[in-house]
Each structure stands twice: as C-alpha cells, then as structure tokens.
Amino acid sequence: MFKLVTGLLWLIVLVRFILPLPWPWWVKALLALVLLIASQYHYFSRLSSGSVFSPEFPRPLVIAFNVLFGTILLLAVFMLAIDAASLIVLVFTGDLPAFATELRYVAGLAALALSAFGVNRAIIVPPLKEIEIAIPGLDAAFDGYTVVQLTDLHISRLFPAAWTAAMVVKTNRLEPDLIVITGDFIDGSLDHRRDDIEPLRGLRARDGILAISGNHEYFFDAEGFLQHFEAMDMRLLSNSHAVIERGHAKLVVAGIPDRSAGRNGFEAPDLGVALRDAPVEAPVILLDHQPMQAQQAAEAGVALQLSGHTHGGMIRGMDRLLARANNGFVSGLYQVGPMQLYVNNGTALWPGFALRLGRPAELTRITLRRKG
Description:
single chain, 11 helices
C-alpha cells in the first residue's frame, strides 16, 4: 500500500511538474530518479530492518529521505491544486490558462522549503506546553499537582540517544510530581535501540514514572521492551492502576495496553479490570494510547484521559483526516460527557513521516486543579 500511494504521488510530480520543465532531458531524468528513490523511502526502510517502521540508516540520510518525501507530497498537492484552479477558469472562461514555468519553480521551491521547515520542527526537542485541568472531586492536597506527559517518543535513528538525553534533561528541570508515558516508546528492535533508550533511565519525578504500551511496541519485541522498561524503574500499567497518596487524599492513575495488544497475543485492554479495587472516592486519570475509546472511559467514571497516537495530525488540514479515524479526537483538550480528554501532539513522531506544519511537538506539563 505504501509503495502504491507514494508511487502515485511521484507519478503526479513527474507528469505535472518535471516533464514540462524546459530543462535538458538528462537533468529531468536525474531529478525524477532522485525523487523516485525518495518516494520509496518506506520500501528501503523495510530492506534495512525488515520493517517500514524502523529505518536503520544514518540519521542525516533519514532526515534527507523525510525532506524529499515531504517535498513530493506537498508538490503533488500543489500541482493538483493548480490543475483544479485551471479547470475552474476553463469552466468560466472557456480557455485553459497556460501553466507558466515560473509558477512551477515557485511551487517546487515552496514545497522543498516547507518540507525542510516541517522536518526541522518535527525533530527538535519539543518546547514546553503548559496546561491546567480542573478535576471534579480532586482533594485540596492535589491542587497544583504536576504531571509531565511524554508520548510517541519513537526513539529511533531519527530520535537517537543524544535527542533522548536532551529531552530527559528538559523534563527533569520541570521537577514534576509524576511523569506518565503514554506509549510508542520506540521504533526498532531492542538490540538496535538499547543505547538510544538508555537515557530514559535518568527520568526523575517525586511519584515516579508510570507508562503504558502504544501500538508501535507490538511491531517489534513488545515483551522484551516492556520488561526492559520495567527494569529501568518505570511502572508499566497493563489493565492495572496506581494509587498516589497525599496524607488521606488519593488519586488513581490507571493504564490499559494499546488496542492492538490482543491481536498480537498480549492481554487486550480492559478498563474494568484496570479499575478493579480502586478507591471509589478518588478521581481517576486514565492512560490510553489511542483516544478513540474515550466515550467508554467517560461512561466508566474516568475524570481525565491522557492519550497520544495521532501526533496532532502533523499537518494542519491533514489533521482533519486523522480526526475522522479517531472518533473526532486528534489534538488538544476535549470534553467527553463528564470526562476531559487530552490528546497530546507527541513528544516526537514516527520517523517514516517526520513532518510538522502547524501541529507542533510538545513537552507537556499538566497542572491539576480543584474544580468548583
């Protein structure tokens, strides 16, 4: 499917952009070949590691692939938009406007510049995003309690040990009460990622680190990874919960595995099991990698759900398509019945499509407040 879709995008660029250019044939052939190779980025990723989700190339090459791949996507969209505008002019005037060479140059340069900017925004250590969320029934002892949410780290050749270490330093400077990681730690095998994930061992919070699995864990050795993270002083919540106490006051943080766990031979998500024996008077924060089942969580009495998975839609406009695939939830804070849902844009994102335009990455500090 990847090869078909990306090949079609390349074909649009070839026919509508490259071939009409007034350049020597060999220059156009060379450009077409470079973009053809870039369009098959995911195929080469699979050759490098056995998976389209784990490009095992040097980081500069992964970045270059993403810039060129993004250029193809944006340029194909620009060409289709220009063609659509030309057809509208034809309908109203009876004449098909000439497609000036200068317009092709502008479209090509704009696509390349936007793609390079979008990749740059995708691979930085993200800026801090501060939000406050009022929780019904929250005891005064937890008013001002801070939770740092990390999600969709996708530690990989694109987000290696140096990036991870810088992100850990920035997180620890916030001195949070609790760190939660809502899935998609890695892309690649444990052997490939062992050194890259090692800086996560340095994460510090007063009440520790709670985490859940994401769908990408199940593309690789999920059992090995989850055991490895447990050994790094993270508590993995898999249909279970933790109770945080401040004197007599209590706060429940529950976690369920990703929706894909059951299809991969692991325990399927079960919110009822996760909340079994939880203190009934305590507000519940639920960690669920994907936001699409938020309505069920609201009906179960959850006060706040923290999710990721969507990467915020990555590109403004394209986020509407991803929202449709996630029951309308793609980025930011939502009210779902009596429950609040926060969908994080992601600390990083999948290295197979590392492009952010209008949907920035975030290092998210959530401050809990009493409601009413």
